Structure formats: structure tokens, C-alpha cells
Amino acid sequence: QKEVEQNSGPLSVPEGAIASLNCTYSDRGSQSFFWYRQYSGKSPELIMFIYSNGDKEDGRFTAQLNKASQYVSLLIRDSQPSDSATYLCAVNGQNTGNQFYFGTGTSLTVIP
Amino acid sequence: EAQVTQNPRYLITVTGKKLTVTCSQNMNHEYMSWYRQDPGLGLRQIYYSMNVEVTDKGDVPEGYKVSRKEKRNFPLILESPSPNQTSLYFCASSFRQTYEQYFGPGTRLTVT
Questions:
Q1: Least confident interval from A108-112, B38-42, B52-56, B102-106
Q2: Are B92 and B100 in contact (CB under 8 A)?
């Protein structure tokens, strides 16, 4: 079982819609959760991090964490063509020691 | 400007010829890490370092070495590169291991 799993997509949404990206993780002791965006050929850039159960909002982005279900999601409201990228979920936790685990990413395309 | 730098950005080499990829950060971060990214496999951690003189293996350490003699630098060494080490490599750093990581621009390595 992979430490972090994401649907690879591709996910396509029309401009202005809400894009929903999901991630599950296997280590129940995980403490830190991150969403990164990566454009083709570029390095990952941090969008959001979340440590506690519940929702965390930053502009058009909302991260949701449910530790009981071992699930973290990212909602992108009012999606723009510039949001078209691969979104990576990353987890760091107790049982993984000091390692980081990344999902394989979900490819998002926002259609104008 | 706060940043993580890597050199070289592109490298083509031959099997068995030792090489070093440098990584440097100017943010006084304690935690540094190396990843490789391959299609379908996502980002996989090679080695990480909690602080000066403290390094540990990630998920895919075989064929790689690292050192952390100074806080700002974390070079990746391939003593005898092989074609299966052809990949896109990223260095990253963070304040502590549970904090968000900042990535360098990447090094595209081809081993023939």
C-alpha cells in the first residue's frame, strides 16, 4: 500500500467551476499535510499546508483534513485556466519518521 | 531573495562517471532533502538531513550519497551513475521536518 494516494486524473473542469482534489494516506500518525502545485517541467510550489482537522481557507483555495478518515482534500473555487497543473499531496508524520511522502499527483485542466 | 539553488540544471553523463549535484539554501533551514521525480512514480525521497552532520535514507537511497557539512549546503553524489538514475532531481529545504518545504529549480540528469 502506498503511503499517499491520489487519483491521477486527468480532471477537467470549466472555468469558474470548483475543482476538488482528493488524497488519502496510510499512516494514522501523520501530522503535517501539504498541497503543492507543479507546472510541467517546473518545481513544486506550495499552495497550502494544514495540521488540524477541519477546513483551512486561503483565497480561492480550501484544504480539508479528516484524520479519522485519513483523508485530505483541496478545493479550488472559481477555477482559472492558470490553475491547470499537477497537484501533489504530501504527508509527514509520526510513523514515517522524518520522511516526506508525496502522492503521484492529480492533473487538472481548466477549460476556458 | 529566499531561495534554494541547484547546479547544474541539466547534465548528460556516461555510466560510471562520478558526479555531484549541488544544493544550497539561504533561509537558515534545518531540514534539507533530495527527491527524484519519474513519470508515474511521483516524487520519491532519496535522502534527507535534519541538521548539520545528520543525514538519513529516504525511500530510494541506493546509488546515492549525501553530506551535510554546512547548514546551507546539501550536495547529492552519484559515485557510479547508471542509466536507471536518469531522472529529474529536486532539492528542498524547510525550517523543520514538519514544516512546508521549498524546492529548488530541479536538475535534469541523463545517464547514457
A1: B38-42
A2: no
Q: Mutation test of the interface with chain B: which of A86, A98, A101, choosing the one with the most B Cβ atoms within 10 A?
A: A98
The tens digit of pLDDT for each residue in B18-72 reads 999 999 999 999 999 999 999 988 899 999 999 999 999 999 999 999 999 999 9
Residue B111's CB is within 10 A of a number of other CB atoms, namely: 20
* Best residue of A33, A35, A43 to probe chain B, by most B CBs closer than 10 Å: A43
Strands (E), chain B: 4-7, 10-13, 19-25, 31-38, 42-51, 54-57, 65-66, 76-78, 87-94, 102-103, 107-111
The position carrying cell 479550488 is A76
